[in-house]
Design goal:
3 helices; 2 strands
């Protein structure tokens, strides 16, 4: 990872990538057919429920909630670092 090892910037970058992929990983690990898994991933990332043909904003939280949470934690940690310096 270079000379300096893992910096907080690299750690948060990896955490954001994993958080964004978490809904897809969750769908891949659940038992079901490929068709069902694709529907779950589409529902979580777009909010569109292909079974009922409706948009459900609550489904977006499942897809993007972890990413938003990691981003907010990153901002709080950066702000705390500035206060402590």
């Amino acid at each position: 990872m270079g000379r300096r090892g893992l910096t907080s910037q690299k750690i948060f970058s990896i955490a954001k990538q994993l958080a964004l992929a978490s809904a897809g990983i969750d769908a891949a690990m659940r038992p079901g057919t490929i068709h069902e898994k694709v529907k779950w991933v589409m529902r979580d990332y777009t909010g569109w429920n292909m079974d009922t043909n409706t948009f459900e904003a609550g489904n977006l939280v499942r897809g993007y909630g972890p990413f938003v949470a990691v981003s907010l934690v990153q901002k709080v940690v950066q702000f705390a670092n500035k206060l402590l310096r």
